[in-house]
Amino acid sequence: MANLKHSYSENVPGQFFVDNTCIDCDLCRQIAPDVFRDEGDHSVVYRQPESPKQTQRAGMALVACPTGSIGTTSKTNLRPAMDAFPERIEDNVYFCGYASPDTYGAASYLIQRPEGNVLIDSPRFASNLVKRLEELGGVAIMFMTHRDDIAEHQKLRNHFGCQRVIHRADSMSVPAEHILDGDDAVALDDELLVVPVPGHTRGHAVLLYRKKFLFTGDHLAWSDDRDGLVAFRSVAWYSWREQTQSMKRLLGLDFQWVLPGHGRRGHLPANLMRQKLVNCIEWMQKVS
Ligand code: SF4
User: Domain with 119 in it: what CATH number?
Assistant: First the structure.
């Protein structure tokens, strides 16, 4: 619960505020860019919502915030914002919101499919989200891109009975039902392809769905500043060199969406996305 007494002085006065527990995860700025902005190492409210739509987006940012750092100065009905997650991105792919502090606010996603839904990385185990996931058909598979973003996997497994999938090199704290080995791509079925991409961690893997949506964890993201794809050198915990090498494995894939744990989403036609990936690899090779 955000505390007005500890709110940042840079917040403009009004309904919404950010307090000093913000961990600068960027989610609120992605969800409600008309209201929240970056202020160095944290977010603030730079403009109060001026329309019902902006109020709804600010409420959704409050709900998604992993640390409860966003508050309101007066009683606000957050039910519509709570019910807005999972939020559809395109086709049958959704953003879960409800980020967990255990993942440093990583985004998690849901694929809704007749043959069983797939959860990518772990949201907060919030009762309202769990209820919405039930309404959308539950969770059959929980794919974990890497060990940092597993958060409340055990609660989700206990509730939904989902099969957890993770690479062995990142499986130390996860008693997963399906553990992947080696560096070769593995098809989970006709629509889901797992590609191991060591670098951020040894056991990091990405998931390609229908040759369109690439769930990239902390391997790859979009950068508005660079107008292109980017990897994060400062958090290549295992090996930047390996991450650069494993990035080349993605050149053989078609995808239009990059859906990361941390960082911004990217969406381009597949041919343009591939060119952005080439540019990203060239940049990575120059960075030591
Ligand atoms: S979502 Fe919360 S923790 Fe993340 S940047 Fe916004 S206020 Fe900070």
Answer: 3.60.15.10
- Give me the percent of the chain exceeding a pLDDT of 90: 97
Q: What is the dihedral of CA 136, 112, 259, 147, to 10 degrees?
A: 80
Q: Summarize pLDDT for 121-140 with one digit per residue, the tens.
A: 999 999 999 999 999 999 99
Q: Which domain holds residue 24?
A: 4-75
User: At a CB cut-off of 8 Å and minimum separation 6, what does 271 contact?
Assistant: none
Average pLDDT in the chain = 97
- Asked if residue 16 and residue 108 are part of one domain, the reply reads no
Token pair for residue 270?
Answer: 């597949």
Same domain, 128 and 49: no
Number of folded domains in the chain?
2
Q: By alpha-carbon position, which residue is closest to atom 1 of ligand 1? A: 65
Supply 123's token pair.
């949201």
Residue 14's pLDDT band, with cuts at 50, 70 and 90, is very high
Q: Distance from the CA of 170 to the center of ligand 1, in angstroms?
A: 27
Q: What residue's CA is closest to ligand 1, atom 2?
A: 65
3 state SS of 59: helix
Indicate whether 57 and 129 sit together in one domain: no
Distance between Cα 65 and ligand 1 center (Å): 5
